[in-house]
Write a structure and sequence with these properties.
Elements lengths: L1 H16 L3 H12 L4 H8 L5 H40 L18 H15 L3 E2 L5 E3 H4 L11 H4 L16 E3 L5 H10 L3 E10 L10 E11 L4 H16 L6 E8 L2 E12 L6 E2 L4 E11 L1 H6 L8 E8 H9 L12 H7 L16
Parallel strand pairs: 1-4
Antiparallel strand pairs: 2-3, 4-5, 5-10, 6-7, 7-8, 7-9, 9-10
This protein binds phenylalanine.
The site of phenylalanine has 10 residues, from strand 9 and strand 10.
Length: about 350
């Protein structure tokens, strides 16, 4: 049975040499597939004499069984090798120390905005927004600031360039967050309770002024809102924000075109030993402007001043952030000095809350 011995030698060798599953399958088809060499040989059995078949039959069957077993063994070996290779390449040392990743911090201004938003939200104020590039109508006219009014100059306004022949209304970088009062009134009508934190711009630069800074506007309008509620709201806010039991606020008569009467508000503090303490001492620090919304302003916002009245305030966010966190120089806020940011920044786990400041 030379032919069978030849087939056996040939296929066992090919099986042993098959480098991968595809090659092995090619060998299997050549040997045992429908038109495979061994299969064809088995089909020839039918044409043999009984005697021939008696010898060739068992020999062919044995060959088929052997080749089949060799195929299976080789397949298993190839799979084992593949798994081994994968385990080796994907090996991971779980005892290695983690790779350090530089961690950012929350900027004190962002932190303070989150804090005051949480505190005012607890008092029922929603957040309103407006654009930083405003028409002069929203920034001035609607707020009862006449074109020749000196406060247009006082505010050191940045005007946007207009090409000759451009008839669009003049636009400015908003000089305060007060235009958001008008936008909120137009959008919601009365009653209304909103705060509007955001960026504002004035041409000014020294240790306590930067050309861009932050304010939070407050606006509450209802049928019987009074100055007393303004005072309570601001005191409640300061207690929560500065995390002290008692604060003392001083209302100084002042003037803003968009409020009547108007008051600037100072907070009692002390500077003993170069350390700022809120709520005690003999010094006063101005933190905001406020007043009862002027009837002209209500009307500009589409609200009838015979039916509704309210208070408004505008507070310097950078100022109260400096006070709360003992940051001496305003300009440092915007210099993006990493050492400063790491020192004064907050981790993202520092959640602002109203409860933190209220010990009642
Ligand atoms: N807009 C004023 C300012 O920027 C602050 C203010 C807001 C005063 C609302 C009264 C009422 O100085």
């Amino acid at each position: 049975m030379d032919a069978i011995a030849t087939l056996r030698g040939k296929y066992l060798e090919q099986i042993g040499a098959a480098p991968d599953a595809d090659a092995l399958e090619t060998v299997r088809l050549a040997a045992l597939g429908k038109k495979g060499e061994i299969s064809l040989k088995m089909r020839e059995l039918g044409q043999m004499s009984a005697e021939e078949r008696l010898i060739a039959g068992p020999a062919l069957n044995a060959l088929k069984t052997e080749v089949d077993a060799a195929l299976k063994a080789r397949k298993a070996a190839l799979e084992d090798a593949a798994l081994d290779a994968r385990l080796k390449s994907e090996w991971l040392d779980v005892t290695l120390p983690g790779r350090p990743r530089p961690m950012g911090t929350i900027h004190p201004i962002s932190q303070v905005m989150d804090e005051l938003t949480a505190i005012f939200a607890d008092m029922g104020f929603a957040v309103a927004e407006g654009p930083q590039i405003e028409s002069d109508w929203y920034n001035f006219d609607a707020l009862n600031i006449a074109p020749e009014h000196p406060s247009r100059q006082e505010m050191d306004t940045f005007y946007l360039h207009r090409a000759a022949g451009d008839n669009r209304p003049p636009h400015v970088l908003r000089t305060h967050t007060s235009p958001v009062q008008i936008r909120a009134m137009q959008a919601q009508g009365a009653p209304i309770r909103v705060i509007a934190p955001g960026r504002v711009y004035r041409m000014d630069m020294d240790q306590t002024h930067t050309p861009m800074f932050h304010q939070v506007e407050g606006l509450a309008i209802d049928r019987d809102i009074s100055m007393a509620q303004l005072k309570w709201t601001l005191e409640e806010f300061c207690r929560a924000f500065f995390e002290v039991d008692e604060v003392e606020l001083r209302f100084r008569a002042s003037h803003f075109p968009f409020t009547e009467p108007s008051a600037e508000v100072d907070i009692r503090c002390s500077w003993e030993g170069g350390q700022l303490k809120i709520g005690e001492g003999k010094d006063w620090l101005e933190i905001l402007g406020s007043g009862m919304v002027h009837p002209h302003v209500l009307r500009a916002g589409g609200i009838n001043p015979d039916e509704w009245q309210g208070f408004a305030f505008g507070m310097g966010i950078d100022r109260i952030a400096m006070l709360k966190y003992g940051i001496p120089d305003l300009r440092a806020f915007f210099e993006s000095d990493l050492r400063w940011l790491r020192h004064y920044g907050f981790t993202s786990l520092d959640q602002p809350s109203l409860a933190a400041g209220l010990s009642r």
